[in-house]
């Protein structure tokens, strides 16, 4: 193998400074780091896979249906990219065209598995179903399915499978499941990489993002010497990272690749402030609220805080409840000029409520002018200045996917979560005490949020790319891999 790339979802350099991962920490200290910055709108794994930003590929964390309504979803897969295979060529295609065999495992949004010279095992994410064993549409070639199942390969674990289906609650039992998934993934990757004699390998351990989400609030409280620390949780996460550390050692020792890359798709941080963009829009005359939906949204707020994961999963299949559940503040769709669609812990933007895309009152010809007015109001707002927040108008896009991209995007510091949880524009957030039943962490306000600085480390070589003004995100990983396989 000429190069091995190990991906870990949601981690950053600080993840490996807790004293739990001596091997990975030693690799980071020996390697050369590329200081990148993600905008948290464009999906990081898809930037690595395609070398393109979401404004070209449409690989956003959440997307509008653009059918004249305000329908929204978080579903995306690589096959949705316009011009895939022609104007946008994923890593595996370019490397195969250059005569190299690839082995790719568990990269999110890649289902169904493409046909490659080598092997491909799709990852979850982007709305893919959470499954335990190897699925036919996740695997290429099909001959690897019995190999994976004999090993006991686990495709994915999420809160809905751990807390809902398996009804786990204690930290040790939850993280034991994640450790098993990591171990079986390592074993399967080594087996297939050896059988198919690959030149480039890419394996992603997505469970690390769950570890960070559960760990960071308690670790933050631990560093602050706060009382009532959930030590059981910290011990379980510590054991998980010690286990992950060993799996990375096993991988690196087995292949001894001339080049090793360690990357993540984004960082993760604790939530310190909540920012309600829709409140800002209403206070500045760009949005009108709708009192008719208040009852449904109050019900959903209660649902988030108290309902079991299994019940919320069932109710989430009801479209009206799901739309409310994902956090959209009720606004009058016929008279509001702009809105912010909040669906999770990423940094969304503002969309102009135009006629063509959303059936709103704004003529399409006025989108740019209205966007500039909102940006001016935002950048001159005293609260925005105080908290170091700024906004800018989307550059004119010439791609098929640019219409999905927000008309206004933000520069907001890590630890600031855009949400509709609190009514005020800016609200300080105090981390709550974590209950012994850690399923409580997936109820109520998000205690963590995505952060901008992903991990990008290289060993046994030098980066063949440089961070520049026009490109400073994970697209550079794609560029580097193509350089070393030129």
Question: Can you characterise this structure?
Answer:
The relative contact order is 0.19. Helix content is 36%, strand content 14%. The chain is built from 17 helices and 19 strands. α6 crosses α12. A hairpin with a 7-residue loop joins β3 and β4. The radius of gyration is 22 Å and the shape is globular. With 486 residues, the protein is an alpha/beta fold. The chain has helices at 22-30, 44-50, 54-57, 91-97, 144-151, 159-165, 171-196, 207-223, 231-255, 277-283, 294-306, 309-315, 319-325, 355-358, 367-379, 382-386, 475-484; strands at residues 3-8, 32-33, 63-64, 72-73, 102-105, 118-121, 139-140, 200-205, 259-263, 267-270, 273-275, 338-339, 351-352, 390-393, 408-411, 416-418, 426-428, 448-451, 456-459. The strands form six sheets. The protein has an eight-stranded mixed sheet, with helices on both faces. Strands 16-11-17 form a three-stranded mixed sheet, with no helix packed on it.
Provide keyphrases for this structure.
about 475 residues; alpha/beta; three-stranded mixed β-sheet; 17 helices
């Amino acid at each position: 193998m000429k190069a091995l790339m190990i991906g870990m979802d949601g981690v950053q350099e600080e993840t490996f400074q807790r004293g739990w991962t001596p091997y990975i920490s030693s690799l980071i200290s020996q390697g050369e780091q590329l200081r990148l910055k993600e905008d948290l709108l464009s999906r990081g794994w898809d930037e690595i896979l395609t070398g393109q930003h979401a404004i070209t590929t449409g690989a956003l964390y959440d997307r509008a249906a653009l059918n004249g309504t305000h329908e929204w979803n978080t579903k995306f897969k690589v096959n949705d990219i316009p011009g895939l295979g022609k104007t946008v060529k994923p890593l595996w295609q370019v490397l195969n065209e250059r005569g190299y065999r690839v082995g790719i495992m568990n990269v999110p949004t890649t289902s169904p598995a493409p046909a490659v010279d080598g092997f491909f095992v799709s990852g979850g994410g982007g709305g893919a179903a959470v499954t335990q064993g190897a699925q036919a549409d996740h695997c290429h070639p099909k001959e690897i399915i019995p190999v994976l199942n004999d090993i006991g390969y686990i495709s994915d674990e999420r809160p809905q499978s751990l807390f809902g289906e398996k009804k786990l609650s204690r930290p040790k039992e939850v993280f034991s499941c994640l450790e098993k998934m990591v171990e079986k993934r390592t074993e399967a990757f080594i087996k297939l990489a050896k059988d198919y004699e690959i030149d480039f390998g890419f394996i992603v351990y997505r469970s690390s993002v769950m570890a960070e989400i559960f760990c960071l609030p308690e670790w933050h409280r631990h560093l602050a010497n706060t009382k009532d620390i959930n030590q059981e949780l910290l011990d379980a996460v510590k054991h998980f990272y010690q286990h992950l550390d060993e799996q990375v050692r096993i991988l690196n020792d087995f292949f001894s690749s001339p080049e090793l890359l360690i990357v993540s798709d984004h960082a993760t941080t604790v939530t310190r402030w909540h920012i309600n963009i829709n409140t800002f829009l209403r206070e500045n005359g760009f949005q009108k609220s709708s009192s008719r939906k208040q009852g449904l949204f109050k019900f959903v707020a209660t649902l988030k805080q108290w309902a079991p994961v299994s019940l919320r999963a069932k109710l989430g299949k009801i479209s009206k409840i799901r739309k409310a559940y994902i956090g959209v503040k009720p606004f009058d769709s016929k008279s509001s000029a702009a809105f912010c669609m909040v669906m999770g812990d990423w940094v969304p933007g503002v969309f102009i409520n135009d006629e063509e895309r959303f059936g709103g009152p704004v003529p399409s010809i006025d989108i740019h002018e209205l966007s500039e007015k909102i940006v001016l109001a935002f950048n001159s707002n005293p609260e925005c200045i105080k908290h170091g927040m700024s906004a800018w108008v989307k550059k004119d896009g010439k791609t098929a996917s640019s219409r999905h991209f927000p008309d206004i995007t933000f520069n907001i510091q890590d630890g600031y979560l855009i949400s509709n949880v609190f009514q005020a524009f800016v609200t300080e957030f105090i981390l709550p005490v974590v209950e012994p039943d850690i399923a409580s962490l997936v109820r109520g306000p998000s205690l963590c949020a995505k952060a901008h600085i992903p991990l990008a480390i290289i060993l046994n070589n030098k980066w063949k790319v440089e961070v520049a003004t026009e490109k400073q995100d994970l697209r550079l990983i794609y560029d580097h891999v193509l350089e070393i396989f030129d």
